Amino acid sequence: MPAVFLRRPPAVEIAGTNWPGKYYVEEINYQNYSIRVVDPGLNKGDCLSTPLYHLTSENFSYGDPYEWPYYWKFRTTALMSCSKQINVNNLFIPIIPFNSSNGGNSSSSSQSYHYALTGDGDYLQVGDLPGSCTIGKSIFSEMGSDLEPEIRSMSALQDQILLGIKLSFLQIRCIRECRVKGENCYMDYNVNSVKCDDPDAC
């Protein structure tokens, strides 16, 4: 099913070969050819909401108008459910899941505790995960600035997740300037430029 982007307002429809669902467009940057999209299931409140759809780099194929450049940094947030309460440190953030009215801290025998583990998507480690915990859903979002304070609360985590995901549409320029003429196209994301190459040239 093609992706549908919902800008606030107006609504904009953009096809994506393997993209699930609908997304809100929060920002379009024509200088670096990027678009920032947010899953409509995400919102800020007393509970931690989760995405309706699971969008990863694997949803993008060669030739799609939008790309997730492999070297663009992103944040991974892993949601955990634990049968025992763990000592909260800089790694684990206590959360209240959206589908749990009491945050899982009930007095029943099935009592569970919920935490989030978040960090750089390339370096996030789960090796120190307590044995009483299991990993549930993972959420991907823009990494944000290196100058931003470390995330240590559910409120700060919500703000980070609501940044959404930044994608590149430099591919569209590549199609318009090169491929429509039957030429090869090379994209340079560092300077946001494209270079056309005639395959029949000497």
Question: Descriptors for this entry?
Answer:
11 strands; mainly beta; 202 residues; elongated; five-stranded mixed β-sheet; 2 helices; single chain; four-stranded antiparallel β-sheet
What is the topological layout?
Elements: E1 4-7, E2 11-12, E3 22-29, E4 34-38, E5 74-82, E6 92-94, E7 113-120, E8 133-142, H1 154-161, E9 165-168, H2 170-177, E10 184-188, E11 193-197
Can you describe this structure?
The structure is a single chain. Helices cover 8% and strands 31% of the residues. About 6% of the residues have low confidence. The chain has a 5-stranded mixed β-sheet with strand order 2-1-3-4-9, with no helix packed on it. It contains 2 helices and 11 strands, in the order E-E-E-E-E-E-E-E-H-E-H-E-E. Strand 3 and strand 4 form a beta hairpin. The protein has 202 residues and is mainly beta.
Between the first and last Cα atoms, what is the distance in angstroms? 42 Å
Portion in helices: under 10%
Q: Which ranges are low-confidence, i.e. pLDDT below 50, for 5 or more consecutive residues?
A: 9-13, 101-108
Query: What strand line-up does the widest sheet have?
Result: 2-1-3-4-9
The largest sheet, given as strand count, sense and whether it forms a barrel, is:
5 strands, mixed
What's the total helix number?
A: 2
Return Rg in Å: 20 Å
SSE run: EEEEEEEEHEHEE
Total number of strands: 11
Hey, roughly how much beta strand do the residues contain? Answer: 25-35%
Kindly state the mean pLDDT as a whole number?
A: 79
Structural class: mainly beta
